[in-house]
Design goal:
It is a single chain. The chain is α/β, with parallel strands linked by helices. It has 2 domains: 121 residues, no CATH class; 125 residues, no CATH class. It has 11 helices and 6 strands. The strands form 2 sheets. The chain has a 4-stranded mixed beta sheet with strand order 4-3-5-6. A two-stranded parallel ribbon has the order 1-2. Helix 2 packs parallel to helix 4 and helix 7 packs across helix 8. The C terminus is likely disordered. It holds the Pfam family DUF3025. It comes from Massilia norwichensis. InterPro entries: DUF3025 (IPR021390).
């Protein structure tokens, strides 16, 4: 299962340090759950009630109890032997404050309205964020804001091809993946895989920080925004992941003119989770 993951791919940069910190024998259900719990204890991970985060087998989830409700009430994260839950655990170890706030939001919604057939807009947005989000950190200033406006207008060619030099460490824009389902899909990359992207404007100083300081800033900023503002689907803009400059081979001009993936913006169309832009 783990041999399928190409850790050299840039879309795994966000969670690679968490993977590298696992015990060498974390290669099965019991193995990686134990390794996750060792990291969770070392990092002092907690849910919004202050309970320690522990990764437990899926069988520990009580019948008729929602997954998010269980985490919020106990700190226990049900975990299966698959890539989906493996990446979920790595994200908990990378962005623990964001994961805590997302779970708190979902648990509060469940407490207020129950599980029901429909998640409702807040839970729907939280689920999309948790599963399929990317975080686009942009240097605060005219160039960064124009870049974001271009992405939101689906000006793919101008934004991702003509202005490709603006992307990358130390430049104007960095992309950090968050969604664990998105990471799972990218084990077998396809051009149409698209992230729901949340934009963060960062000061110039952020781009000169060490990797872990940049990660911690993202974690704190997004978690704080979620705590104060909540979440809705209007916060997202689509971004075809293989279109991030430098993230895939063959990114010539024709690559970005492929309208089966890099589609023009339509005001009457919403992006579905994991769908095409």
């Amino acid at each position: 299962m783990f041999a399928q993951i190409d850790w050299a791919r840039p879309w795994y940069d966000a969670v690679r340090p968490a993977f590298d910190s696992l015990a060498p024998d974390a290669n099965g259900t019991e193995g990686f759950i134990d390794a996750f719990n060792a990291n969770a204890a070392r990092l002092g991970l907690q849910n919004h009630r202050g309970q320690p985060i522990r990764f437990v087998p899926q069988a520990d989830l009580p019948p008729d109890t929602a997954y998010e409700e269980f985490i919020g009430a106990s700190g226990c994260v049900p975990t299966r032997e698959n890539l989906h839950d493996f990446f979920n655990g790595l994200v908990w170890q990378t962005f623990p404050l964001i994961k805590r706030e997302l779970n708190a939001l979902q648990a509060a919604q469940i407490a207020a309205a129950g599980v029901g057939k429909s998640r409702g807009p807040a839970r729907d947005a939280a689920t999309i964020f948790d599963e399929n989000a990317a975080l686009l950190v942009v240097r605060d200033g005219d160039a960064g804001r124009m870049l974001v406006e271009g992405l939101r207008a689906h000006q793919w060619h101008d934004t991702l091809f003509v202005q490709r030099a603006l992307f990358g460490a130390g430049s104007t824009a960095e992309v950090w993946l968050f969604g664990h389902a998105l990471m799972e899909k990218l084990v077998a990359p396809r051009k149409a895989i698209t992230a729901h992207t949340r934009v963060l404007f960062a000061p110039d100083a952020w781009f000169g920080l060490a990797w872990d300081d940049r990660r911690a800033w993202i974690d704190m900023q997004v978690a704080g925004q979620l705590c104060v503002e909540g979440l809705n689907t209007a916060a997202f803009t689509p971004l075809p992941v293989l279109g991030v400059p430098g993230w895939w081979g063959g990114q010539d001009e024709a690559f970005y003119l492929d309208q089966t993936v890099f589609r023009p913006k339509r005001a009457d169309r919403q992006v579905t989770q994991g769908g095409k832009a």
